[in-house]
Amino acid sequence: MLTDSKQACVQKADACPLAISGKAPFFQIPIHVGQPGVGNRESFFKRVNEMLDRRWFANNGPLVKEFESCIACRVGVKHCLAMCNATVALQVAIRALELQGEVIVPAYTFVATAHALYWQNIKPVFLDITPNDYNLDPAAIEGLITSQTTGIIGVHLWGRPCDTQAIQTIAARHDLKVMYDAAHAFGCSHKGRMIGNFGHCEVFSFHATKFLNSFEGGAIVTNDDKLAAKIRLLRNFGFSDIDTVVSFGTNAKLTEVCAAMGISSLEAMDDLIVVNRRNYETYKNHLAVIPGLSLIHYDPANSNNYQYIIVDVDPLRSRLTRDELVSVLWAENVFARKYFWPGCHQMEPYRSLRPPTPDYLPETDRTAARTMVLPTGQNVSPEIITGICRIIREATDHSPAVRRLLNHEI
Q1: Is the pLDDT of residue 8 over 60?
Q2: Helix 41-54 vs helix 256-267: angle between axes, to the nearest 10 degrees?
Q3: How far apart are CA 158 and CA 184, in angstroms?
C-alpha cells in the first residue's frame, strides 16, 4: 500500500503534462540544435550543373575562387583561403604561424580548437573565461606565459568578440603570435570592424551546423600577404606551380560542390540573419517569465548572426537544473545541448595531462554546468519556439514531480 505522501507524488506525476511521465512527446519529429540552413536551391543547382559540365570538381576551381572572393569582400580582408573544414584550417594556420611549444587557449570551446594544437605536438595551456562573457579572460594571460609560449588563440564564442585590444597588447609585450577561432562569428563585427580582421589570421567554419554553411568547409582570412602565400602552399602539398614542390604541405582544399553551396548560402545570408534574430527575440520574450533562465546578450553596437540561442540556467533561482531541463526536452524530441560541457580541460587527453582541481578554471566549470543551447534556424518557426518554451515552463511549474520522475522515485 502506498503511503499518503507517496500517493500524492503519484498524483502529481499523473498531472504532469510531459513525456517523462509517460505521455506522448510534444514534437513527433526531432528538433535539433544546428539544423542546416539552405540558401537559394535554384542558384545552387545551376552552379552544380555548370560544375558538372566543366568537369572541374576540385583543385582550386572557379567556384572556390568565387567563394573566396565573396568571403573576402564581405569580411573586408585582403585574403580568404578556403579549406576543406575548419579543423584542418586551424591546423594549417597554426603551422603557417610556426607556433610550437605552448599556446594559450580557452578551455571553454569546442575541443577541435585544442586538438588542432595537440595534433601538432603543441601543448594547449588552458585559460579561464570571464564571468557572464564566455570569452577568454585577458587578465589571466600573463600568468600563464612561460619561456615555451609562442602564441594565443582567442575564440569568439557564440559570435561575441574577444577583447582583441587587450589580447594584442599583451601579445605585443611578449612577442607572441595571435590568431582567432572565429567558427561562430562569420557575419559578426567588433568595434566597427568585421571579425576576420584581428590577429595575424582568423579561422571561419562553414560546417553544415554553422550560420553559413558549405556542407563542410572552412577558411583562413588574413591581411598579411606573406602569411597568405605560405598558407596557399600548405593547403596544396607545397606546390608552387603544377610541377614544383617548394615546401611541406597537405591536402586542405575545398571542393567545387561545397563552394557552390557556400556561395548560395552567402546569397541568403541577410535573410538568415533576419530569421535568426526573430527566433532570438521570440525565445527572449517567452523565457523572460521563467525564473532563473536568461538568454545571453548580444551587443547592439556589433553586428551578429544570432545563430546561437544560449540559455543560462541559474542554479540558485531556477526550479530545475540545466541537466534536468535538457533531459525533459530530449524526452519531448527537442535535442537541446550542453555545449562545451565539461570543458576541454575535463576531457581526455587533457584531463590526464593536468588533472583538474576546484581552483583550476572555476569560471569555465561554473559556466559549463549551467549553459543550455536551444534549436533555431530556418526550420524553427515561432510556433515551434512557443512549444519549446511551453515545455520548459510546464517542467518548472511541475518541478517536484519532474525531479522525482527523473530520479525514478515514482
Answers
A1: no
A2: 150
A3: 5
> pLDDT digit string (tens) for 224-268?
999 999 999 999 999 999 999 999 999 999 999 999 999 999 999
Angle (CA) 133 117 235, round 5°: 110
Report the run of H or E that residue 85 belongs to, with start and end: none
> Is 402:395 a contact under the CB 8 Å cutoff?
yes
Cβ contacts of residue 388 below 8 Å, gap of 6+?
Answer: 31, 329, 334, 374, 375
pTM of the full structure: 0.94
Averaged pLDDT, 33-40 = 89
**Residue 89 grid coordinates:** 584550417
Superfamily of 269-406 according to CATH: Aspartate Aminotransferase, domain 1 (3.90.1150.10)
Q: What are the residues whose beta carbons fall under 8 Å from the beta carbon of 107, sequence distance 6 or more?
A: 114, 126, 127, 128, 129, 343, 344, 345, 346, 361, 364
pLDDT value of residue 14: 56
Helix, strand, or coil (residue 77)? coil
Which of 3.40.640.10, 3.90.320.10, 1.25.40.20, 3.90.1150.10 is the CATH number of 41-267? 3.40.640.10
Tell me how far apart the alpha carbons of residues 239 and 233 are, in angstroms, rounded to a whole number: 6
Residue pLDDT, tens place only, 63-77: 999 999 999 999 999
Same topology, domains 41-267 and 269-406? Answer is: no
pLDDT for the residue numbered 35: 87
